[in-house]
């Protein structure tokens, strides 16, 4: 695989619900190491597209490739094994487990065989790595707390840390900024960019918060009515008339 | 200091279990053995229900499978171990099959499927006389002997049961502490998130049923030599509900919960004996009250009280963490 | 042929009584997400209230029946909701299931302690005569049981669909938040549902006890049959529960007569497993409907 080959490649993806074309022939590539933002007004098909990529919805036509492999129809757990991590729009930590266990469970399935994990080390050899991840997201003082007792913003951080634990080549972030207060938001953004810089992990971000997307992403794709209407760097998008019309008109 | 506390407590507990039956009459020894055996069954259900979050009302039917396998084989002259192994393996397989419905339905639907399964096993054990002796059951099963030393007396058999129980607890603790235990909890807490982290939730659900059921099989294999008489009513739906009560009353999802719960369910009637026929009613009322005020069971209640006494400061540290980021 | 008709008719008669219990079960499930594991005991107990009025108070039958109905609605409807379900809401998971299981033990043991373990004869409500329909000999009791149950179901359906209160109850069951916003007193509607359930259970009890006699352990089978009928019917609609009840009644009779009496109880169970796995939404249900 050459350095230029895309991490994620979406080809001619369509999905209809009844008479509504939620996603209508969308194609795009995501290059290694970039942070791609996926934006669009409500009902533009972002979430449907996301769900098609992640195998939660079956697209009518088209296919999705991750690192050159067709992943259409794969189960979520297999997709994860192929190096795709994700976060969820709503809070998705395991509330009755400690932060440390949340982080370890996010990586353990990539260690050894299922049977091996039954008889192997309790931490699956991940304790050190998990601690580093917890330190990276500045959750050290919360390590042994139940994840459910953390504040909303802290849980979002745990959620993000979990997505990275298996060392994925691609991480899909579903509205990471939703509901997070401003102070936390700056921290989250800084941590995500740092992670991207240090590990070269590719991100795809769906987000409503324009400021967040504009400052985090290196490239942005704008969807409206199920189609890609614009693509480019943050500055280009900001001044693109079609985009402005779509938001104001939509 | 605290690091020594847990092993020390465990040793004290074990010593208590060793000393408990000394000088006691047969009935008390019988009760203690029965407590250990039901603890095993309840711990198995706790794995399925408390750790992995899959409700099952069929644990007694797995005890039936274990008990009948052991009874039939030991009556035919095979050693207990062979009967026990056959029972456990059978339960593992049948439990795995019973797990398949759990892949399709959850919650109360699953409760009904497993409940129906329990009733079916009951019907089969009642009607297939050639195999199970029908309503008359099977009797006269010999007790096992270890190294030529027969456990015919109640006290040695208690220690035999205790030995099996301790070994079982060790194995069970191993499972719960292993990555599997963590994955089971993840499955309970948020199956969709678990799946997205590479956890094969389908396989794990099946495993939760298989392992939990196998524990029921082991318990059944111990019941046979304990009571030396089994019939279909010993494993009817009511007993599954009793085992479920043990798990929930003790505290689902806690290692020691079912052991405590089994003690309460088995020994409480003895303490309430003076109330004669009313004990089940009193018991039912206590369960209802417990469920209303502390659904996490006695262990949960204990933790609540402990936190109250210690006046633990509020767990969450929003503010300091917020300032940090 | 006439035997077949006879078997089917008496199956329909018992089935219609099962349906009453199943409908109540379904209503309570819809209104409060309460899976009532004591439903069988709810059908067992009212017969004893009637017996108490008859034997201890020496009342005439009609007054005893009225007494049974009122006490049932009070105890199995109001008190059940107020003392057990309400304190546990909004969490309706395992603890509530366990609590209703414990309640079933409480009611069963209560009946046994206060009225004895033997089956008690129970006065028939209808004349013990038979009549001939197309060559089949059917008892008047069966026919009237069927007629009364069906009439009650029709009346209940009309109440739920045609009256303001009925529609409010339905709105509460379908979407409590929206109903609340629209000005429906949802708490009261939930209470009504519990009262209706208790009344249906009492009626089922009065109809079935002349056949089965009043016994503390009657609830065990009745409860399972009510669950099965409710699930076969789709768990969220009256029509479904009715069909489910009738179906179970008829199938049960047919297996007992033509296939095997010893596996009579197995058929509904197998049916239950197949339906849950194959069509969790029930035979008549649609896949919408609330899931936990």
What does the secondary structure layout of this molecule look like, with pairings?
The complex is a heterotrimer of chains A (250), B (325) and C (292).
Chain A: E1 8-17, E2 20-30, E3 35-39, H1 46-53, E4 61-66, E5 69-70, H2 76-81, E6 84-86, H3 99-108, H4 114-119, H5 127-136, H6 152-164, E7 170-174, H7 182-199, E8 202-206, H8 210-216, E9 219-224, E10 227-232, H9 234-238, H10 241-249
Parallel strand pairs in A: 3-8, 3-9, 6-7, 7-8
Antiparallel strand pairs in A: 1-2, 1-4, 4-5, 9-10
Helix pairs in contact in A: 3-5, 3-6
Chain B: H1 2-19, H2 26-51, H3 59-75, H4 80-104, H5 107-127, H6 129-132, E1 138-139, E2 145-146, E3 149-150, H7 154-177, H8 179-189, H9 191-196, H10 201-227, E4 229-230, H11 237-250, H12 257-271, H13 279-293, H14 297-310, H15 318-324
Antiparallel strand pairs in B: 1-4, 2-3
Helix pairs in contact in B: 2-7, 2-10, 2-11, 2-12, 3-4, 3-5, 3-10, 4-10, 8-10, 11-12, 11-14
Chain C: H1 2-32, H2 39-56, H3 61-88, H4 94-115, E1 130-133, E2 136-139, H5 140-162, H6 164-174, H7 176-181, H8 186-212, H9 218-233, H10 238-259, H11 266-278
Antiparallel strand pairs in C: 1-2
Helix pairs in contact in C: 1-5, 1-6, 1-8, 1-9, 1-10, 2-3, 2-4, 2-8, 2-9, 3-8, 5-6, 6-8, 9-10, 9-11
* The CATH homology group name of the domain at 8-92 and 167-249 in chain A: P-loop containing nucleotide triphosphate hydrolases
The end-to-end distance of chain B, rounded to whole angstroms, is 35 Å
Low-confidence stretches of chain A: none
Major sheet: arrangement of strands of chain B: 1-4
CATH topology category name of the domain at 8-92 and 167-249 in chain A = Rossmann fold
What amount of the residues of chain B lies in strands?
under 5%
Any idea what the shape of chain A is? globular
CATH level-1 class of chain B: Mainly Alpha
Describe this entry's structure for a reader:
The complex is a heterotrimer of chains A (250), B (325) and C (292). Chain A is of the alpha/beta class. Chain A has a domain at 8-92 and 167-249: Rossmann fold (3-Layer(aba) Sandwich). Helices cover 37% and strands 24% of the residues of chain A. Chain A has ten helices and ten strands. Chain B is built from 15 helices and four strands. Chain B has 325 residues and is an all-alpha fold. The model of chain B is unreliable at 313-325 (pLDDT under 50). The model of chain C is unreliable at 287-292 (pLDDT under 50). Chain C has a two-stranded antiparallel ribbon. In chain C, a hairpin with a 2-residue loop joins strand 1 (130-133) and strand 2 (136-139). Chain C has helices spanning 2-32, 39-56, 61-88, 94-115, 140-162, 164-174, 176-181, 186-212, 218-233, 238-259, 266-278, and strands spanning 130-133, 136-139. With 292 residues, chain C is mainly α. Chain C is globular and about 60 Å long. Chain C is built from eleven helices and two strands; from the N terminus they run ααααββααααααα. Chain C has a domain at 24-219. Chain B binds chain C through residues 49, 55, 101, 104-109, 111-113, 115-117, 119-120, 123, 126-127, 237, 241, 244-245, 248, 252, 277-278, 280-281, 283-285, 287-288, 291-292, 295, and chain C through 35, 84, 87-88, 91, 93-99, 101-103, 105-106, 109-110, 112-113, 220, 224, 227-228, 231, 262-263, 265-266, 269-270, 272-273, 276-277, 280, 292.
